[in-house]
Each structure stands twice: as structure tokens, then as C-alpha cells.
């Protein structure tokens, strides 16, 4: 029943918003009573916290599996993490939208654990960048902390516009992002390119 309540809440929170969804609507969606709801959750806020924590725990497990691959380079691990986040849009899009949009409704008591998990995800990402710098895969002059925030910004907001069944696949979007992250958008020597011939103008 707890899983059913959580799934019903995800559907309703994503569609209507946390504030606009009542406990009554959640229990009606699964054919339960308010008594059943309060057996598992003290409040609607605790349910929202549970959704956010579940989302973060899943991301952390996937990130840890990628980072523990001793045979992969830092560049390969970076690609895999970006791909993992993009793939989650298909499987966990609603939870992600709730996480980023509705978390502001949580009080500090519920936010503390979520913030700690977000910080752990970011710090692991940052350490990957530092390791890549130390191994000569990434520029030694990088500000690892700022690069990490940039990476998170690029991938996180994809939840609001990316359509996995559209013209661009998860793998193709990952290639676009990683190429942009590693190489930028300017030609190597700054030469202006003819868009029709893909050759230098001069």
C-alpha cells in the first residue's frame, strides 16, 4: 500500500502540484482511506520527502556503480553519468520534476537529509573532475567546483524539455552534451566555418 500511495502521489503532484493535491485525492486514487495514509505517513509533506529521497537514493546508487568501475577512464565515467541522468528522464521523469519543482515546500527537518544526498552526488561528480585533471584527461587549470555546477545545470534541466521518444535519442543527446562539455562549440583555431560546405570561409 505504501508503494501505491507513493505512486499515486507522484502522478498527482506532477500533474497538479504539491500544494493543490489533497490527501483525500491521493487515497481515492488507490481506493484507500485516510487512516491507511496516516499509517504510513505523518503528513503529505513526509510523503513528498519520501518521493525526493527515493529519487536521490536511486541516482546515488547508479552514480556509485559507474564511479566504482576501475577499468573506465574519467572521461568514460563522465559520459556514463551524463547518460544515466538523461536515461532517467524516460524512467523517472515525473519524480525528477517533483524533486526540482516541489522540494521548496519541505521544511528544514525534511530538507536536511535530501540536501546531504544532493551534496554527496555533487561532491562525487566534483571528485571525478579532479581525478580527470590529475590524470591529464581534463585541463589542469579548471575550477572543478564550477565545472561540476555547470554539468549539473546542463543535465538537470533536460527534464523540462527533453522527449526521449522524439527526434534525438538519449545516447545522441549524451554525445551532444559530452562533446560540448569536453570541446565547446568553437572550432579548434577559431576559424569561421561555412555552414553549407563545413569548410573555413577564408
UniProtKB/TrEMBL annotation:
Gene3D superfamilies (UniProt xref): Homeodomain-like (1.10.10.60), Tetracycline Repressor, domain 2 (1.10.357.10)
SUPFAM superfamilies, sorted: Homeodomain-like, Tetracyclin repressor-like, C-terminal domain
GO MF terms, alphabetically ordered: DNA-binding transcription factor activity; transcription cis-regulatory region binding
High-level lineage: Bacteria, Bacillati, Bacillota, Bacilli, Bacillales
Cross-referenced PROSITE patterns: HTH_TETR_2 (PS50977)
Domain of life according to the entry: Bacteria
Organism annotation: Geobacillus thermocatenulatus
Name of the protein described by the UniProt record: TetR family transcriptional regulator
Pfam families in UniProt: TetR_C_24, TetR_N
